[in-house]
């Protein structure tokens, strides 16, 4: 069986695979988060589907010769089943875990949108917010209506002149 993919689709598939792998790993360490849960869920679902389809296309690309046709189909089926199982676990757990605001400690005098808040890990029906490790104090700043920046902060080292206590 000959390869029917054009070089541009191979490049697109490769870059999509690379972006989705980075999206699940390295991009998690960037302190920019979604403000709402629904866009976050849509983003991760699209990222997961892009990972699955681009991986199968890359498998087809590298194992497309007639001698490896059966191996390609078996590997693709195993991979898609594994991705489907992970997606089910992902869809069932991600919407349940969300960081919720517990209270506001300080508000910036110059920009009232910038706050220092306490947040906790809300696990929905599974609880959350009951353990001391569930809470953390973060510097919170909305960037757009869809994104916010949150970084851990030590309030003992805070310059109190620029902040109002709440």
UniProtKB/TrEMBL annotation:
Top-rank taxon, per record: Bacteria
Residue ranges of the TM segments: 12-34, 41-62, 74-99
Keywords associated with the record: Membrane, Transmembrane, Transmembrane helix
Keyword Membrane: yes
Name of the featured protein: Uncharacterized protein
């Amino acid at each position: 069986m000959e390869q029917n993919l054009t070089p541009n689709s191979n490049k697109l598939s490769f870059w999509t695979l690379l972006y989705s792998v980075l999206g699940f790993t390295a991009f998690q360490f960037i302190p920019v988060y979604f403000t709402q849960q629904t866009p976050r869920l849509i983003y991760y679902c699209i990222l997961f589907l892009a990972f699955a389809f681009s991986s199968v296309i890359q498998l087809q690309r590298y194992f497309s010769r007639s001698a490896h046709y059966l191996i390609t189909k078996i590997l693709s089926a195993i991979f898609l089943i594994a991705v489907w199982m992970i997606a089910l676990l992902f869809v069932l757990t991600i919407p349940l875990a969300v960081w919720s605001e517990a209270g506001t400690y300080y508000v910036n005098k110059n920009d009232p949108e910038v706050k220092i808040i306490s947040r906790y890990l809300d696990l929905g029906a599974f609880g959350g917010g009951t353990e001391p490790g569930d809470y953390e104090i973060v510097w919170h700043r909305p960037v757009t209506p869809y994104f916010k920046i949150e970084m851990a902060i030590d309030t003992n080292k805070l310059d109190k002149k620029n902040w109002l206590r709440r």
